[in-house]
Amino acid sequence: MTLLSLPPPSSHCFSSSFSSGHRSSAVVTTGRPIRFPAVAAATTTHHHQQSLPIDRSSLAVAEAVEEDQLWAAACLRIRSFNDFQSSSFGIQDHKRYLAEREFLALKERIAGKREGFKRVSCINATLPLSQLSNSANDLCASCKIGCILRVSVCHYWTDTGKEQHIKFTSNGEDRVVVGTLDLNQCLWLPEEIPGRKPEGIEAEYGRAYLSNVCVARELHRNGLGYDIVSKSKTVAGEWGITDLYVHVAVDNEPAKNLYLKSGFIHENDEPAWQARFLDRPRRILLWIGVPCTNEL
């Protein structure tokens, strides 16, 4: 299983980071701790590097069902939502810790063990590893995690002190997770302003939120963000969701452009006092109506 999220070359993460539900600090290039809250808008970064083209005929966008796919998604999120300095002491151990925490929290949410979440799905965009062969060395170099995942149900073992390239295999083909998000059926996300639609008893069943929206930075401008958001709307409709929301930082213009072009519209603003209290950029809440395709 290969993780594909790379040092900040060209653009941004799209939306919000939703990890284990606890705050922590991470070692970053600036030497400052970076907040990793339950739901935190990803920061916008601007760099100058040409995006790699992809063969869209081999792109697959689907709900993740296997643990190796969830592990790849967790690794992509950690690399996307943090800015690490490779020379920092113990950085590989810290990356492994964050990836393991997000992986286990993601499994817990999908299994229905997180209070307040009725249903959660991880949606991944994947490409064959062979399609990325021309740049595989550079891509995989940023995806290495010295990983001994001490969980009995997992199989991501490597020798102590060695690094392992993370990938997963589907129908005999090695594939790479290049985009990911979570679709959360719930009334609200922790530490975020709730949506207003639908109202009454239907809200418990008809409201959902997107979180952890990110795309491998090397592959921005290939439409992958639109692809995973579009898939989330399809899955939401199959669940009977009528109202889909996403939170985004007010200064994250690339993310706002993605959602607005995907049909979302502004519904509400986070109070300034709340953003100050949580020590983060202020959020806006975007909404889109979802045609229900669930006949039950």
From TrEMBL:
Q: Which GO terms describe its molecular function?
A: acyltransferase activity, transferring groups other than amino-acyl groups
Ranges where the record places region Disordered:
1-20
| Classification via PROSITE patterns | GNAT (PS51186)
Give every N-acetyltransferase domain span. Answer: 127-283
Q: Which GO terms describe its cellular component?
A: chloroplast
Residue stretches of biased makeup (Low complexity): 11-20
Q: Say which domain of life the source belongs to.
A: Eukaryota
Per the record, where are the segments of Pro residues compositional bias?
1-10
Official protein name in the record: Detected protein of confused Function
Q: What is the lineage of its organism?
A: Eukaryota, Viridiplantae, Streptophyta, Embryophyta, Tracheophyta
